[in-house]
Design a protein that fits this description.
- The protein has a single domain, classed as Glucose Permease (Domain IIA), CATH 2.70.70.
- Strands 1, 2, 3, 4, 5, 6, 7, 8 and 9 form a nine-stranded antiparallel beta sheet that branches.
- Helices cover about 5% and strands about 35% of the residues.
- The protein has one helix and nine strands; from the N terminus they run E-H-E-E-E-E-E-E-E-E.
- A hairpin with a 5-residue loop joins strand 4 and strand 5.
- The longest helix is centred in the first third of the chain and has 10 residues, at about 25-35.
- It has one helix spanning about 25-35, and strands spanning about 15, 45, 50-55, 60-65, 70-80, 80-90, 100, 105-110, 120-125.
- The two termini are about 15 Å apart.
- With about 140 residues, it is mainly β.
- This is M23ase beta-sheet core domain-containing protein.
- GO terms for molecular function: metalloendopeptidase activity.
């Protein structure tokens, strides 16, 4: 199933780190090696802390809170797969909550291994190839 998703925010925020890009920064490269990925496994959007983060699609909250290098993150389960929202300042939902498309689920921040204020957004489709070099994640851009 190919999802049709919305951007996880209202307004315009620039992409600072696209999907699949290999970083120049040696510290980030080391993290990628540690995580077992060959390039960025999501999209980073520069935005001020406290910007409302919205659900990209209807779903259910399956993870909320501290999540290693992702800092405070939220993971939603959808009919088509999962979406993850990372480096948040605050979550506005709890595990088990059902969310509508466009519902406020959190506030952007710079928690975890974040290099500045931004939102990391990623999606993983059902039956994803977990050995694709991106831990099964795929570029969300074609689905907006």
């Amino acid at each position: 199933m190919k999802p049709k998703i919305r951007l996880p925010f209202d307004g315009h925020y620039p992409v600072t780190f696209p999907f699949a890009v290999i970083p120049d920064d040696e510290e980030i490269k080391k993290k990628f090696i540690q995580w077992g990925i060959r390039g960025h496994h999501g999209i980073d959007y520069r935005m001020p802390q406290g910007t409302e983060v919205l659900s990209c699609s209807r779903g259910q909250v399956i993870q909320v809170g501290e999540n290693g290098d992702f800092g405070i993150s939220i993971t939603l389960k959808h009919k088509w797969g999962i979406s993850i929202y990372a480096h948040l300042k605050e979550a506005k939902v709890n595990v088990g909550n059902k969310v509508r498309v466009g519902e406020v689920i959190g506030l952007s921040g710079k928690s975890g291994a974040a290099f500045g204020e931004h939102l990391h957004f990623g999606i993983k489709l059902n039956q994803a190839d977990l050995n694709n070099g991106y831990l099964g994640f795929t570029d969300p851009s074609p689905f907006f």
